[in-house]
Target: FAD/NAD(P)-binding domain-containing protein
Amino acid sequence: MAPSELLTPLNGVNGIANMYDYPPANPEGEYRVLQQYHSKPSKLRVACVGAGASGLCLAYKMERMLVPGSWELKLYEKNPMFGGTWYENTYPGVACDIPSHDYNFTWDPKPDWSQFFASGSEIQGYFEGFAERHGSKKYMQLNSKIVEAIWDPSEGIYNLTIENPQTKEQRKDWSHVLVNGSGILNNWKWPDIEGLHDFKGPILHSANWDHSVDFKDKSTAIIGVGSTSVQITPALQKICKDVKVFMRSPTWISPPFGAGALTSDLQKGQDVDPGQRQYNFTEADKKKFREDPEYHLDFRKRIEAEINSLFGMYIQESELSTTMRDVITKEMHRRMGDGHEELKKFITPTFAPGCRRISPGDGFLEALVQDNVTPVFEGIKRVVPEGIETADGTVHKVERIVCATGFQVAFQPAFKVVNGEGKSIKEDWTKGPNLYFGVSAPRFPNYYTIVGPGATWSSGTLLPSIETTIEYSIKCMRKMQHEGIKAMAVKQDALDAIYAHFDEFHSNTVWQEECRSWFKDGEVKKRIYLWPGATIHFLKTIKDPRWEDYDYTYRYKNRFAFLGNGDVKATAEKDIQGLSVYIRNSDHEWSVA
Model:
């Protein structure tokens, strides 16, 4: 469906029906000057996959970074409610492992967080409140899953197929730009275990929790020992008759990160349990944050600075890595108490902290040593109607099975994206992800992934990376609008160069050690798709796009057509100040609109 065939716009900012009539592009014959002022923005239609943190940020930032009336946006959300992972994950104990005061948009502080590490429901509430305050819901299409996006190089658009997940009804749409804001961990999957669905009792997945299932006084199996199991296990231990935790691999359970500001301020002078990561903010704490924004800002900055400063722990055999191994090991053993030698031996990894995602969590190790919890170290052979049979032939009879086994890591998008050569990303990425700075893919123009493989996923806070990648994408959109660009795609040689840097950098990071991790696409030995530096290093790199790393296709015959008829915007608007912007009393930066 081409722009000329579709006159009804997206829900957007101006409601103009036929808003995509560009000035004549004179593809044939002699070049002609466009009758417009210098850099007049072209109309731009943007579609985003997902209405979680990335989609909400995109709407907010487009309103502030693009010329009003020059763009339209739709946020396609597959769920009946927006919020992304915090809407989908509602299992017992779900919480964020980043301190709450740095798990909001960096420009939108929330002084009244209930706890130092916020629950999933409170985070979902934050995003719902953000959408209400900033009018984000007008851009959303709920129950709308993009299943296919096909690039039309002649029109410079993506033809989109959208499906209702409930009715399977499909409809068509199109956009000049496609933003993938669905995240890496968005498609949950059942573990590949023989006979899993032969079990006669309820089977639950952590990412698709059934709240109608009663666990009180029930015998329960929990499969997995990752970040979700760490939260679910202590929650179920308190109510179940007994719990068996099936542990495939060891994991590091760390003390709290970013807690220096907490212990030096709010807990100063208190007798604090060194393993206790949680803190309930008092009304006095919230009042101080609310009434003293500078104090609150300093509190947030110290949390972030501490987390950024810890990146050295990911350098193999560094002093900080060695210290962290010693500190975490001692803390884990302290939490488990005397004895439990088999558990301590199994759960303490031989690989360095950080090779797999570190799982901080209150109560997990303490729960494993309770009388009603049994850690199971034997591998799972199969599931039988009565429970789980392990490799040694033992059948562990249970009444409930919880799969805390994570997601199908979306190194490739969960929907089909096809370029102008008729090749899909799946066909193009035969040797693994091919994504520049975690955002742009060669041969797939005008397509932006928000914090994809190659960005910061293992160290630091995530929202600043989302925000800055959104801003990067919008700067690309703005360049397209103002310079008559129909399509821009990152060069393969630029990506090859950054991947060569990745490989050399990671040759001595802990991520290349012998551990299975989604950082390495689920493999023990594979290219490491993590940014080679701390979060702040990533932000510095993508703050401003390197335009020289892109190839451009121009909408008009001459790449300088955007210069127009000799006017600037201020001329058209008879703006005296705009027509003399460079006349000033001191030497400061200036620019012409």
